[in-house]
Amino acid sequence: MMNIPDSAHPRVVIIGGGFGGLSLARKLKGKNFQVVLLDKHNYHNFQPLMYQVATGGLEAGSIAYPIRKVVQDHKETFFRMAVVEKVDTENKKVVTNIGTIYYHYLVIATGSTNNFFGNKEIEKHSMVMKTIPEALNIRSLLIENLELALQTNDEAAQRELMNFVIVGAGPTGVELAGALAELKKAVLPKDYPDLDIANRMQINLVQGVDRVLDAMSVKSSRAAEKYLKDLGVKIHTNVRVTNYDGKVIETATDLQFHSQAVIWSAGVKGAAVNGVETAVDKASRIRVNSFNEVEGIKDVFAIGDVAAMYGDKYKFGHPMMAQPAIQQGELLAENLERIQNKMALKAFTYNDKGSMATIGRNKAVVDLPKFHFNGVFAWFVWMFVHLLSLIGFKNKALVFWSWVYNYFVFDRESRVIIRPFRMYKKNSMAQD
Amino acid sequence: MMNIPDSAHPRVVIIGGGFGGLSLARKLKGKNFQVVLLDKHNYHNFQPLMYQVATGGLEAGSIAYPIRKVVQDHKETFFRMAVVEKVDTENKKVVTNIGTIYYHYLVIATGSTNNFFGNKEIEKHSMVMKTIPEALNIRSLLIENLELALQTNDEAAQRELMNFVIVGAGPTGVELAGALAELKKAVLPKDYPDLDIANRMQINLVQGVDRVLDAMSVKSSRAAEKYLKDLGVKIHTNVRVTNYDGKVIETATDLQFHSQAVIWSAGVKGAAVNGVETAVDKASRIRVNSFNEVEGIKDVFAIGDVAAMYGDKYKFGHPMMAQPAIQQGELLAENLERIQNKMALKAFTYNDKGSMATIGRNKAVVDLPKFHFNGVFAWFVWMFVHLLSLIGFKNKALVFWSWVYNYFVFDRESRVIIRPFRMYKKNSMAQD
């Protein structure tokens, strides 16, 4: 049994300290609930800036925030670092590596994970960027590959080590490609004067459909494509990757890439917990009604990326982004109170505040519900919104300072390999 | 063969990018030498602040600086990330994991490593803090132990997890004890309201001789002891640790500690490379003459912690600190030129600028060659000297900002477990 004190109030167990779980926990503060928040990490990470950790622009700590600090002054909130093994909705309990816990209400806010669409070879050989350790692994691999390239004069071998192939041109892929291109332009030639960085380092961005950022407006796609090309990124649209053996990337076309650095950002899926299989859809998300109640399971809710709330406008659920998660968490806090007070529940409607992506210095695209803009102003908006969204004054200041520095000095000083990746590739540690 | 271009100038191979190796490489810039700098990491780390990384006050990146950036504008300097396997002084070559390299002059600047005085049990079970990954492991263990303590109501088990025992009260041990005590006082009770941090968390500092900081003045020792006691650290002088099995620490006295968190800072020794055994002394340091020439081996030099220059005042060599390393590196650059110009060499004399240690907020001790002072002013001096000594404007600014923040907010925000330690204890990754 997990060691949590008894309470006079009903217990809400929240699995996951991401945007959704935290927004819910914060809103439940001071309400008549005991809240138990579970996460396998002791920090919340700000995923939208993960690519900057991977490319040495930000320190890992700048986008990680201790969860305990968020709930520090919540008297009835208990955080536990735990890995959830399964939920038993019949007996209303959650089984974890540190014991079992009973709930009155369960909220699944476990987010999303990488989707390799069943291809084990790609999963085995490519890098991903959903967690901070994974982002740090990409950073290490990037530098390790360049160091390895120094050890050979064979052009083909060098090109293979220096060919960065990003599969998937959603916001993650596009932002990572842009950041890599800036590294290539401003930082790496100075660090590696003996490598022909300008010619032999390549950044290939491979997209299955006909444009990058296909969830955004066509105008944004076009602007992003232009920015990427100006930075030297090679864009390959309508190319579906079919395999990668650690050396060669095969596609459904004649195109083939030789690369020892493939980053997979071509798909995400829900990270549903064990025990709610009856409600899980094809994208591994959990079907919920408009009150975020899990289909057919009493007193169990799902919010954020892992929740699929099918609707007219969002046929297969809301986009897997921070905003729907935050808004659902906030509403669910209200609805849990309404349940306690035997009041009618409020249905969720997504307030789409728009979406944006940055490609590099002075370059971003922004889609608001009514109009699109891009360029320097979009870039400032992007920075402003992201700074404001970061939790904590210290993180805001650290990120702000790093950006100011990187902007004026054209540098990325976090290009250090604290823990090597290649040497430990086959080691589970490298992934966690 | 290592892939380094030929040069018209004689080649100086430097093993180690610490304080000594870097000061030498910098001074050789623009001189008539080809310089090849080898290090197993791609960053220089600022060891004096390592304990703040271990206790969540600083991010790892704030004390790590890319070596390539240091030598970026040195045309004839080549950095290679390499692990040296041995040196072959007869054939004037260095054998590494990325190939062999010939030298005209070899400089060994490999620093120091932990000294367990042959006790394998202690080595296996205790934590150390010589590298950044090791400091991050301590940070992870500290938090993991508190999370584990939450899972039990058994007082003895909790105390064992929360008993931090630091063996060795030199600057490292003292500064770490002070930082842990401040965490205990200001941060942890808020994070863990359900644990009885104030009573059950203990910080024990165990010292083999009769005072802490025994390399400093008696006044400094007394002041440091008072500061530590005020912070709640229990000091045990004249206690020699004899064994630790992962649970119980045995000493040469009746004293025994039950602890799952033992940090070993009781000794260092030279980290000599293979191949110079004839010159290695009992402390694993390499005996050098007053020109830093390795005893009996032509064209091979050693500087810094690994070099033992026996003298009248420093019977077994200089203290293993940054200053002697930096000064020896600088002088050796001059002497290498003198050798080329067939001029007489200059003998090294250590300019002792003093030593200092900080115990916590507003508390430090400073020994200058002529006098001692402590308290708030010493603390400001300590901060000022350390900030100035950091390489790079960005690191200076990040550290400064973190200190200002920690000072006013009484916080340590880097208390996140990016890579867990306990789970991977037996895994080599955890150590590298």
From TrEMBL, chains A, B:
The keyword RNA-binding does not apply. Residues 353-408 form the External alternative NADH-ubiquinone oxidoreductase-like C-terminal domain. Its EC number is 1.6.5.9. Residues 11-329 form the FAD/NAD(P)-binding domain. It catalyses: a quinone + NADH + H(+) = a quinol + NAD(+). The chain crosses the membrane at residues 371-393. SUPFAM superfamilies: FAD/NAD(P)-binding domain (SSF51905). Keywords: FAD, Flavoprotein, Membrane, NAD, Oxidoreductase, Transit peptide, Transmembrane, Transmembrane helix. It is an enzyme of class 1 (oxidoreductase). InterPro entries: FAD/NAD-bd_sf (IPR036188), FAD/NAD-binding_dom (IPR023753), NDH-2 (IPR045024), NDH2-like_C (IPR054585). It comes from the Bacteria. GO terms for molecular function: oxidoreductase activity. Belongs to the NADH dehydrogenase family. This is NADH:ubiquinone reductase (non-electrogenic). It comes from Paenimyroides ceti.
